[in-house]
């Protein structure tokens, strides 16, 4: 019934029904109590009007009544909390085999980066039926990535990757908004998500700019910036070997163990002294101001690929012939939108 209401946005992701069910529950509960309160006001005003009830009756209290009006709402609120927490956990944890797309927010546009190397601005093409994990970061202030039809919204912060995921269920074009006031042109920081059938998506992807995969751009940068002189893959260099690093626990020189995730790798490039791996000296220079957010994503993608292709040895074959990788363009030049 409510599907036909124009007030309700499209339901186009696997999360939509979960969010809507909870939302309908909340509306039903608040609607029920709103109506009940107004009805009771009306009934009591009639029933206890002065002509019928000239003297107020003193009531000393009722434990049953007090317990009821405390425990009943508590039960309802616990249901709301547990249900909401369930959906939150569902949205916060991307399925393991998700495809990863990077999102960079800046005043006032969205830059989207596919692992295959295709870049988009204010437009995101995705295949239907595929779990997609977004890693989001801002180049300046706080933005918020909001796709109403998918029922996902995630703050995009400077200096830290955040994550959200979705699985589009219906081909179509959907609104993409910035949902956090971020300056003069905040209202213009909009775009669209194009959900396509997998075959059509592959076709679209094949027609994209061929500047190499994001990981290969990162590999090129890794050489250019001289990372490879210390982070060697053949012998032990002055820095840790990065093959197989991503997602694994790392022992630090302060005895602490952390997981080598997106944020750890980002921090280690920009502020290498913050978490030094056990057995190494803090000799790495900072790359703050040298690499921008998009180059960081390329480096991150490359370091990740070193773990994924550990078994496939794909990296070795690519490393042997880096000549097919075109020069890594500067972020500004290469960020042209494509249709
Ligand atoms: Cu970006 Cu509002």
Short synopsis of the structure:
With 339 residues, the chain is an alpha+beta fold. The chain contains nine helices and twelve strands.
Q: Please list the strands of the largest sheet in the order they lie side by side.
A: 3-2-1-5-8
Task: List low-pLDDT spans.
Answer: 311-339
H/I helix tally: 9
Helix content: 25-40%
DSSP E strands, number:
12
Bound molecules: dinuclear copper ion
Estimate the strand proportion: 15-25%
Morphology call: elongated
| Radius of gyration from CA coordinates | 27 Å
Q: How would you sum up the major sheet?
A: 5 strands, mixed
What does this molecule look like?
The protein is an alpha+beta fold and 339 residues long. Helices cover 36% and strands 19% of the residues. It contains nine helices and twelve strands. Strand 2 and strand 3 form a beta hairpin. Helix 1 runs antiparallel to helix 2 and helix 4 packs across helix 7. It is elongated and about 95 Å long. The protein starts with 15 loop residues before the first helix and ends in a 5-residue tail after the last helix. It binds dinuclear copper ion (CUA). Dinuclear copper ion binds next to loops. The site of dinuclear copper ion has 9 residues, from loops.
Summarize the topology.
Layout: H1 16-47, H2 63-92, E1 99-106, E2 109-113, E3 119-121, E4 123-127, E5 131-138, E6 143-147, E7 152-156, E8 162-167, E9 172-178, E10 191-196, H3 198-206, H4 214-224, H5 227-230, E11 249-251, E12 257-259, H6 262-270, H7 293-308, H8 314-320, H9 331-334
Parallel strand pairs: 1-5, 4-10
Antiparallel strand pairs: 1-2, 2-3, 5-8, 6-7, 6-9, 9-10, 11-12
The structure holds dinuclear copper ion.
């Amino acid at each position: 019934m409510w599907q036909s209401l124009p007030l309700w946005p499209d339901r186009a992701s696997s999360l939509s029904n979960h969010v809507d069910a909870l939302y309908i529950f909340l509306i039903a509960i608040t609607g029920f109590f709103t109506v009940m309160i107004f009805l009771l006001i009306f009934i009591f005003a009639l029933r206890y009007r002065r002509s019928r009830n000239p003297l107020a009756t003193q009531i000393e209290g009722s434990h049953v009544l007090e317990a009821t009006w405390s425990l009943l709402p508590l039960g309802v609120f616990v249901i709301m909390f547990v249900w909401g927490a369930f959906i939150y956990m569902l949205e916060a944890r991307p399925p393991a085999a998700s495809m990863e797309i990077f999102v960079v927010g800046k005043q006032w546009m969205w830059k989207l980066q596919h692992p295959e190397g295709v870049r988009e601005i204010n437009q995101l093409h995705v295949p239907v039926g595929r779990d997609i994990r977004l890693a989001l970061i801002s180049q300046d202030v706080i933005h918020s990535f909001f796709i109403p039809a998918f029922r996902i919204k995630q703050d995009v912060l400077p200096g830290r990757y955040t994550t959200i995921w979705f699985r589009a269920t219906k081909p179509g074009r959907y609104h993409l908004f910035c949902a956090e006031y971020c300056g003069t042109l905040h209202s213009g920081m909009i775009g669209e998500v194009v959900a396509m059938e997998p075959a059509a998506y592959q076709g679209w992807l094949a027609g994209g700019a061929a500047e190499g995969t994001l990981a290969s751009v990162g590999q090129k940068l890794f050489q250019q910036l001289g990372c490879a002189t210390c982070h060697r893959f053949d012998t032990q260099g002055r820095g840790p070997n990065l093959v197989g690093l991503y997602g694994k626990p790392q022992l630090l020189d302060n005895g602490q163990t952390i997981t080598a995730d997106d944020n750890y790798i980002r921090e280690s490039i920009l502020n290498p002294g913050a978490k030094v791996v056990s057995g190494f000296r803090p000799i790495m220079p900072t790359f703050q101001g040298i690499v921008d957010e998009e180059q960081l994503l390329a480096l991150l993608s490359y370091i990740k690929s070193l773990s994924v292709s550990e078994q496939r040895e794909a990296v070795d074959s690519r490393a042997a012939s880096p000549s097919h990788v075109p020069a890594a363009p500067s972020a500004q030049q290469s960020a042209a939108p494509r249709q």
